[in-house]
Design brief:
This protein has one helix spanning about 1-35, and strands spanning about 45, 70, 75, 75-95, 105-110, 120-125, 140, 150-160, 160, 165, 170-175. By secondary structure, it is α+β, with helices and mostly antiparallel strands. It folds into two domains: about 1-35; about 35-175, Galactose-binding domain-like (Jelly Rolls). The protein starts with a helix and ends in a 6-residue tail after the last strand.
Length: about 180
């Protein structure tokens, strides 16, 4: 009886360690995938330049200030080239602090595999969002369940005539080093 009890206890501990190990492994692998900011340091382009900034919206530094700004025009846009096809999980858009933050509320998100044909994957439709030092957090666009998550280019475009300016844009996903 004592031997059986010891054996049972051993099985329970072993199963517990097994579960903990599996949880740690799964958790670690999902973090590795979703926490890679694929936009970091990648080439960007925008529809026009109102002013040039030394800071960049893809340098990983969130300041609450503008890091790019277009001229006032119809449907201005900004885009980043991830330089290969990647499976995206999430796009995080940090607005600038102050009254001009509302300009970005009409932002749409478009994606393209080759930079020629674009598919709209998200319409923000005027919903307020913030960023560093603001009550509201950044705009988070879920891409993990999008049928268009495999992409190379990500474009942000206003639905209206205005100036497009933001602080930081992060594009998370599975890093496809082999390219595609
Ligand atoms: Ca920045």
């Amino acid at each position: 009886m004592l031997a059986f009890a010891k054996y049972s206890a051993f099985l329970i501990v072993a199963a517990g360690l097994g579960f903990a190990g599996t949880y740690w492994f799964l958790n670690k692998s999902s973090q590795d995938i979703s926490l890679t900011n694929l936009a970091l340091g990648k080439p960007t382009l925008q529809s026009s330049y109102h002013k040039r900034y030394k800071s960049s919206p893809v340098d990983g530094r969130i300041t609450g200030k503008n890091s790019f700004i277009t001229k006032k025009e119809n449907r201005p846009w900004w885009q980043v080239d991830l330089q290969a096809l990647h499976e995206l999980s999430q796009i995080k858009i940090y607005n600038v602090k102050g009254k001009y933050s509302k300009r970005a509320f009409s932002v749409d998100v478009l994606v393209s595999q080759h930079g020629d044909e674009w598919t709209t994957v998200y319409l923000n439709k005027g919903v307020p969002f913030g960023g560093k030092g603001m009550k509201m957090g950044p705009l988070i666009v879920d891409m993990a369940n999008s049928e268009h998550r495999l992409t190379r280019y990500v474009r942000l475009q206003l639905a209206k005539k205005n100036m497009l300016h933001l602080d930081e844009v992060m594009v998370f996903g599975k890093n496809n080093r082999a390219g595609g």
